[in-house]
Amino acid sequence: MSSAWFTDLLTRLTAFLRTAARQNSKNNLNEELQFHLEQSIQANLAAGMTANEARRQALLEFGGIEQAREETYRQRPGWLLETLLQDTRYALRGFLRNPAFTVTVIATLALGIGATTAVFSVVDRILFRSLPYAQDDRLVSLVQSFEKQEFTLGGFYYEWRDNQKPFAQMTFERGTGACNLTDANPLALQCAEIAGNFLPTFGIAPVLGRNFLPEEDLPHGPRVALLSYGLWRTRFNQDPNVLNQTIHIDGHPTRIVGVLPANFEMPRLQQTDLVLPAAMDIAAQHTVNSGIGYPMWAFARLKPGISIAQAKAEMEPLFLHTQQWIPAQIRQDFHLQVRSLRDRQMQEAYMGAWVLLGSVLAVLIIACANVVSLFSARAAMRERELAVRSALGAGRGRLVRQALIEAFLLALAGALTGCALAAVLLHAFLAIAPTGIPFLAQARLDLRIVCFSILLAFLCAIMVGIVPALQKPRPGALAARAIGSGNRPGVRLRRSLVIAQIAVSVILISCAGLLLKSFQNLERQALGMATSDVLTVTVPLNAERYSSGRAYMDFYLGTETALRSLPGVTSVAISDSLPPDGNSGIRFDEIFVAGRAPTPTGTGGIVIVRKVTPDYFRVLHIPTLQGRSFDEKDRNASGNVIILSKLLATRLFPQGDAVGRRMQFATFQPYFALDPTVFTVVGVAADVKNDDLASQVEPEYYTVRSSDHDLDSWGSRHYRFAVESQLPASVMAAAIRAQIAKIDPTAPVHVEPLTESVSRLADRPRFETALLGFFALTGLILAIIGLYGVMAYISAQRTQEIGVRMALGANRADILRLMAREGIALLLVGEVIGLATALAFSQLLRSLLFNISPRDPLTFLCVGSLLAIVALIATLVPARAATRVDPIVALRCE
User: 189-209: per-residue pLDDT in tens?
Assistant: First the structure.
């Protein structure tokens, strides 16, 4: 048996050596052919032919048909166009012969261009594009920060304005609030109040009419208004004669003096339909609220050559001077904040925009790497074709032109498909996007972004397509394929690209995994209350119609009674706000417990305050842990009762003796002092999520909304109804609107399930997670395609080597291990690089994460395992195909 095996092996080796000898003889033949070609050219020249005629005749004699034909074409009119058409047809036939390559390249380019263009269109305004103000880089926000709030007190503003030096101009806005156009066909609007120099400071000029006059910005001055462009278009049909018309705002006659530009936006980005003069009484700002004035928001334009840091340094002494007006107990918690207007507008959107931009650029990198790898593999497979064409006389210029045409056609198809995909992706992004992300609703495909992406696609395709044509074909490529070792430069390039693709994919999937786990933590956290079967009802009331606290109280109490009478309603409550939305609060050190020393100033943070009716805890199913809840007697009694949250009760009364204790609170009217009102603790309620979903639970207390003794406070804010019902939300919403219409048919009513209100608070992290997850999945697919392509190419290149190994006795398991070892090595190197990079940069995501570490080990372990499993499949499929090679076929010469 051993003799037969030796005889068979000798036969195979002999055949192999004969094949190599034939290949060597072909190489020698090719060199000999070139020698005779030169001899023939010399003979033709000696016979009196011109140089071109001598070369063309020699090429025809020795088989250089292609080059001879090209030289003949050059003598004819229109030869270049005919050659281009010929090369185009040749390229198209080549694409049809290899549809997998063609479709993959076009799809990869389209995905890279489409995703990049769509995301850049979204983040362009946030990160790069100028704001719609003249010299926007010199505009700053100038506010006092207190806890989580930012504002400027009126007394401070006028003191700063009159004594500051770094600003060319200072201005302010008083905010935006609900107002009503009470002419025929009443309309609910948003009205902003601004200083008279607001528009000039921002470099804004009305497109119609004029700005406010100085006398119109004085207390009790003429009532005038500027229309927003949208209101002018929809309500007044862009009538140029709208100027000097009189409209009624909340019942007050107001004259229209101008129309704002279409791109006008308030510096805090709030919706605005109508702009009114603030008409501030400057003298009053130094007397109200202990001389600190009403809250507003200040903005300024820097003088030329002054930086933001310099402006803040120059304003600091003035700020410290005015700090003396603030009560000493809270003075240290106020801070001066000077920052660019762009930073003020973008705030939390900045990090999310950079993450999205980084993720799509990572996808673009993976896509480009795939295109380079595909072209490199195709060039290696076409090496013999190029060598044959070169031997037949094709010049270097002809080969380069052919490569350029092929690259141009693929890039054009990829670019056009990418632009269409970009439009689809942008539409999808806007459809799932939440409200509150600056400028997202205005995102459109930008021509310059589209052109840049297309140019990038052309450069990428042309660069990787033309390089093989510039290389001199190897003479050996005319013969049969040599035994491949997989270590040629082209293979090394593709290996490097695959490693880069895997590394970038690990980074993308790691970031997506962290955001996904963070979002799950956000949605699964306990709220401490029930949200199902609860409807929230908001009714903004006309300030003219409801001009007193009595009018407000009568409406809300009448509506409460009417809603209770509806079939299916089990309970109704009124509150100034509903969790998990935050609400106004006081400082912990403003709480005074009878018989106890005051809390040290500046400790304890914020305590949330809500004024509710007795059914509040019943509607939201908030359990009472100690004592009792409010009842109807508390609404009508002259005494004051209070319920503490568990967290606040634990801080104030760690011994658990909260019920029955008496408390008072500080007041700033007219100065920091103790309010004489004494509250008695009657119960302790469970903690609820009360300051946004992503924030920690804050301590909270509740006071009862009585029927009449706090009459003046009824008109101080808009209250919300919480209605519990087992009936479908759509049925109850219609019934609620009909019932409120009986009380006030002009009042707008907004009804929404509480579950939707809570879910909306998670819209932004949901949006960011969805987009990053999409890009991570896309990058993973592209990386796996790249790995599969490299392994398939290496398997094809090593076919003869595999045949020799199998001829020498290697079995299929040996071949499988040989080929799999290659893919596993690429996978391990890529994963190590990717995980190390992801761990290094994961800290940048800290502000976007909730209850999860940016270096969460479980997330990175799952990411590594997932990518390893998928990559192993992509490696083993071509490796398994390599084990099916027939040794006899593999050893044959092509």
Answer: 889 999 999 999 999 999 999
